[in-house]
From TrEMBL:
<keyword id="KW-0812">Transmembrane</keyword>
<keyword id="KW-1133">Transmembrane helix</keyword>
<dbReference type="Pfam" id="PF09819">
    <property type="entry name" value="ABC_cobalt"/>
</dbReference>
<dbReference type="InterPro" id="IPR017195">
    <property type="entry name" value="ABC_thiamin-permease_prd"/>
</dbReference>
<feature type="transmembrane region" description="Helical">
    <location>
        <begin position="20"/>
        <end position="39"/>
    </location>
</feature>
<feature type="transmembrane region" description="Helical">
    <location>
        <begin position="59"/>
        <end position="75"/>
    </location>
</feature>
<feature type="transmembrane region" description="Helical">
    <location>
        <begin position="82"/>
        <end position="99"/>
    </location>
</feature>
<protein>
    <recommendedName>
        <fullName>Energy-coupling factor transport system substrate-specific component</fullName>
    </recommendedName>
</protein>
<feature type="transmembrane region" description="Helical">
    <location>
        <begin position="160"/>
        <end position="182"/>
    </location>
</feature>
<feature type="transmembrane region" description="Helical">
    <location>
        <begin position="131"/>
        <end position="154"/>
    </location>
</feature>
<keyword id="KW-0472">Membrane</keyword>
């Protein structure tokens, strides 16, 4: 006999966005945008600290990638990663960044990097490994974009260093941090209306009945 949490009907995935999905994704995007803006202010002094190895400043790239991963993990609908990352980019751009309109372009590309990973898993895997891969996907996206633009004139060794650093940063700051934030939100009960919160409640119920 199927439990209410595991019936075939309960497993049918509805990819249509609800009003609450839009609202929460927007809130995540706006809050992330403020953090993006602050991270942009910190970028100059932090990159100076890493200047002993040219290209190592790619380790800071993940500070602009977590919105896509977190949005995807929370909303779990196609387009969530791109939406939250773009909203965050627009907010940081409107507040004022040194990169101006290009911030929006970077936001679209970074969001797509994470979105592609979630899509490859058919929007059905939300484990830590998937979060780390989504962060890596966003890191690959920003690494390629920066190497082709901001670092186009530098030596290949610096380009490789930057690209690898950006991917590592994407995994850690974009993927792992987003996963930890998600777990915190789930424990607080803030995601009770989302699959992430219901999955956690279901696992807790199963453990209690063992």
């Amino acid at each position: 006999m199927h439990s209410p949490l595991t019936t075939p009907a309960a497993r049918v995935r509805n990819y249509r966005w609800r009003v609450v999905d839009i609202v929460v994704a927007s809130v995540i995007g706006v809050a992330s945008g403020v953090i993006f803006w602050a991270w942009g202010l910190a970028w100059t002094p932090l990159s100076a600290v890493l200047a002993f190895t040219p290209g190592l400043e790619g380790l800071l790239a993940g500070g602009w990638l977590f919105a896509a991963v977190l949005g995807g993990l929370v909303v779990r609908k196609p387009g969530a990663a791109v939406y939250t990352e773009v909203v965050a980019a627009v907010v940081s751009m409107l507040i004022g960044t040194q990169w101006g309109f290009s911030t929006l372009i970077w936001g679209v590309v970074e969001g797509l990097g994470a979105e592609i990973v979630f899509a490859l898993f058919l929007y059905s895997s939300w484990k830590l490994g998937t979060a780390l891969l989504a962060g890596a996907g966003a890191g690959v996206a920003v690494g390629i974009l920066d190497v082709l633009n901001s670092y186009a004139a530098v030596d290949d060794a610096i380009k490789v260093t930057y690209f690898v650093s950006a991917v590592v940063s994407g995994v850690l700051l974009g993927g792992l941090v987003s996963w930890l934030v998600l777990r915190g939100l789930v424990r607080s009960g803030a995601l009770s209306r989302f699959a992430a919160g219901r999955d956690s409640a279901g696992r807790a119920t199963q453990r209690a009945t063992v």
